[in-house]
Design a protein that fits this description.
This protein has three helices and 19 strands. It is rod-shaped and about 185 Å long.
């Protein structure tokens, strides 16, 4: 209000009302850190992601009852609310968050979530902001294949046609990613079984799971005669591929052949009975033969 006064007049006054525009606003910056909590090298189920939040009042009015939420199941938010946040103020310590990595996240290759911060203006209206964070989860698909062989009669070597060799093939997921489309082949074994899955029968080779296959082979005469094509072994190779690992991985197993060439000789004789009286005479045989003279 302004007042003017002179010696000749009474004081006069006037005022001006100015409206100051309110511009409530809030900003959120979210950061995440991947922690190796379980001691296993690389990313694995059970590792955690911890979150930090910078909340800024970038408006021109004080904000009250500031809260922060994250809608993704499994994300834990601690702290708050902030009772009041003055214009220009930044709060980096009130809110924290965490999330425990699941196998499905690793199989997807990343985990993304969004946080929302909300404040109340002096006029009881809400202002909010969101920020997301994508955490890369490095995939390392790996497995091993192990093949073993043994004779059904518990012998050490195959030495005759008809011997039966039993095979066991074990595939183990040693990586950090679930494997699909797993296919084990062995052209030597015609009766290879379907796998026995050690964790869940779902056609997915889970991390740490083993699949066990069995089959058998009957030794042939050709195997023995050829001495295993010359190397003295009946050996064959099993291989495995999957959707995630296209290059075949293999393992072989062998049974030693024992060639034992042998034969027998059997001699028989037929004995003809001779007249004992004839053989005991002292008369020469020619004297016993009649002679006719002319």
């Amino acid at each position: 209000m302004a007042v003017v006064d002179t010696d000749q007049t009474d004081p006069q006054q006037d005022d001006v009302t100015s409206t100051v525009a309110q511009n409530p606003s809030i900003a959120l910056v979210k950061t995440g850190t991947l922690n190796d909590d379980d001691g296993t090298t690389g990313v694995s189920e059970g590792d955690t992601i911890t979150y930090a939040f910078d909340v800024t009042n970038d408006g021109n009015v004080t904000l009250y009852d500031v809260t922060l939420t994250d809608a993704i199941p499994g994300v834990t938010i601690l702290g708050g609310p902030i009772s009041s946040l003055a214009p220009g103020a930044v709060d980096s310590t009130t809110f924290t968050g965490s999330y425990t990595v699941r196998q499905s996240d690793i199989d997807a290759g990343s985990f993304t979530n969004t946080a929302t911060v909300t404040g109340i203006t002096p006029n009881q209206t809400e202002v909010s902001d969101t920020d997301d964070h994508e955490q890369d989860l490095s995939q390392n698909p790996e497995y091993t294949i192990t093949k073993t062989a043994s004779l059904a009669d518990n012998g050490q070597t195959a030495n005759e046609a008809g011997d039966v060799i039993n095979y066991t093939i074990v595939v183990e997921n040693t990586g950090n990613q679930s494997l699909t489309g797993v296919d084990v082949t062995d052209n030597f074994i015609s009766n290879l079984s379907v796998p026995t899955e050690s964790i869940t029968t779902d056609n997915i080779l889970q991390v740490g799971e083993t699949w066990t296959y069995t089959g058998s082979y009957q030794v042939t005469r050709e195997d023995i005669d050829s001495n295993g094509n010359g190397d003295g072994l009946i050996e064959n190779v099993a291989s495995v591929v999957s959707t995630q690992i296209q290059q075949p991985q293999t393992d072989d197993a062998s049974i030693e052949i024992d060639q034992a060439p042998d034969y027998t000789v059997t001699k028989t004789a037929n004995v003809t009975e001779v007249d004992a009286a004839a053989t005991s005479s002292t008369t020469p045989l020619w004297l016993k033969t009649p002679v006719t003279r002319a």
